[in-house]
């Protein structure tokens, strides 16, 4: 298992490199950050790279957080009650928009709440995209590399 902490000043590897990390980083096409000893910097996001289907139930109890699967072998660690959807809701409220009047695109289970609560939720087909997400979404579009989002917006009169 490997951990990457996204701190305010950038990402860093908090543990040794594992095969899971190498596999997961292929999906994101990003470099593996260097190992840096954590010195108390504010962490805004944690990613765990572990086997698909890993049981995090005990860890979730210990750290009072939710661990949500992302593509391949990556998992997002989020404080309970926090998700992409709660972030969107706060931004909508801040700018004076109706909190539920947004359109969202997503391709993985970590996008579930965001799509479920959007006025229009669009699942994006991808190589490792979640089929469950595609079934619950209002619409499904092709992957960005196939101009899926652009095509959806154009065909539905948004652009």
UniProtKB/TrEMBL annotation:
Keyword terms: Hydrolase
InterPro entries assigned: HAD-like_sf, HAD_sf
SUPFAM superfamilies named among the record's database cross-references: HAD-like
Keyword Hydrolase attached: yes
This protein's record includes keyword Repeat: no
GO molecular function ontology, one term from the record: magnesium ion binding
Entries under Pfam families matching the protein: Hydrolase_3
Any one GO CC term of the record: cytosol
PANTHER family to which the protein is assigned, alphabetical: HAD SUPERFAMILY HYDROLASE-LIKE, TYPE 3, PHOSPHOSERINE PHOSPHATASE
Protein name per its UniProtKB record: HAD hydrolase family protein
């Amino acid at each position: 298992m490997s951990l990457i902490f996204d701190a305010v000043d950038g990402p860093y590897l908090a543990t040794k490199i594992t095969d899971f990390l190498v596999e997961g980083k292929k999906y994101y096409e990003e470099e593996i950050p260097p190992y840096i000893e954590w010195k108390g910097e504010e962490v805004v996001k944690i990613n765990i790279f572990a086997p698909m289907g890993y049981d995090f139930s005990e860890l979730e109890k210990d750290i009072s957080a939710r661990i949500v699967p992302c593509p391949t072998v990556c998992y997002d660690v989020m404080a309970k009650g926090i998700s992409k959807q709660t972030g969107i809701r706060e931004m909508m409220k801040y700018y004076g928009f109706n909190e539920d009047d947004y359109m969202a695109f997503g391709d993985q289970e970590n996008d579930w709440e965001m799509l479920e609560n959007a006025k229009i939720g669009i699942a994006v087909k991808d190589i490792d995209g979640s089929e469950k997400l595609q079934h619950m979404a209002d619409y499904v579009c092709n992957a960005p590399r196939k101009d899926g989002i652009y095509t959806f917006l154009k065909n539905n009169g948004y652009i």
